[in-house]
């Protein structure tokens, strides 16, 4: 009796001991398992941390991984001399893309002009009206056409960091032509280092499908065949450039957002100079040089690297000659980035977290116009830097006339947007704007109070104003205007 009780007792002890050991093994295995699947032990805690404080939770999560990745992935790289504003483990190795091959004899190769074939002038004029550019010429050019390497010699031999952040490209379009939209996409795919190109997001701002059905299902099926992730997003109703860009920005999974227009062509080495500046300092916002693609012939024409962005007191964006003092600041090196007061707005790269930190765009702005100055002022007054990189070239089809309709009338929309810019960002300098546009004084001011209190992006903006004031911008600007 006593013996059997002892045996049962021994069995219990053996059983409990092995269970304890088993439990410890499980705990050890789970502790060292990776969180990337989301199932590892400790991952749940990070997730719940994110719910209360998303940015901090995510940063910690990345930091932990960064150290591990750094040890495993990048230890063979010599990173001395490079400064990174990201955890090294979050950055990607990259290699330049090979040059897109030239196909002599095909129309528009190497950026050459396309002439209308004899007898097709009437057709050409008819098609021109659809997009306000020579659609016949564009349709005859390969989606993969070759372009000249337009960079300065000093740019071609420049050393860029061996590690860079990834970027998602956001492109808003409205009734865009198939050939210009897809040539934009192909030029990105062909000329961006693949590891740095996270995805391309095409935002269809309510294109009118009764006349343009190819932008529907056909586009969605086409992009599935591309070698890079390309997604098509759609606004429910016409929302304008700003709200459509915000819709795209929300879906971005890369570290940097690069906004591009829907009828551009990226040239060789266009992306590296933009990402290199941001890799070193996430508060830098960088624009390429915007070259000209002729609306008549689709010829690629290089723009000057000696102009920067300014504005007049009607708050129209204008190009001005780069002043001598900025040339001197750059030590006379034309490959160095230019600190520009404002940007044209269509094409720029910005760190995603910085974009969110400064309050993104002013969501109360309609359709188009003024948002480029708003973003420029926002960047300068929120402690950032706005630059043009002379080593990055992207061609843009400039048009004489806008092909877009403006619900509410073009003048009303742009003026209303500009009045918002003046009221939010210009302190007492706003008076210059309202002196130039007396009809806007009062009427917009009174309704402005309402916008102001309703817009969350303006709350961020006001924080920036308090901290930095307009002085960061005005000295450079007033001189550019003289
Ligand atoms: Mn455009």
UniProtKB/TrEMBL annotation:
The keyword Ribosomal protein does not apply. It comes from the Eukaryota. GO terms for molecular function: carbohydrate binding; metal ion binding; polypeptide N-acetylgalactosaminyltransferase activity. InterPro entries: GalNAc-T, Glyco_trans_2-like, Nucleotide-diphossugar_trans. GO terms for biological process: protein O-linked glycosylation. It is found in: Golgi apparatus membrane. This is Polypeptide N-acetylgalactosaminyltransferase 5. It comes from Chionoecetes opilio (Atlantic snow crab). It holds the Pfam family Glycos_transf_2. Residues 168-358 form the Glycosyltransferase 2-like domain. GO terms for cellular component: Golgi membrane. Pathway: Protein modification; protein glycosylation. It is a single-pass type II membrane protein. Belongs to the glycosyltransferase 2 family. GalNAc-T subfamily. Its cofactor is Mn(2+). Keywords: Disulfide bond, Glycosyltransferase, Golgi apparatus, Lectin, Manganese, Membrane, Metal-binding, Signal-anchor, Transferase, Transmembrane, Transmembrane helix. The chain crosses the membrane at residues 12-32.
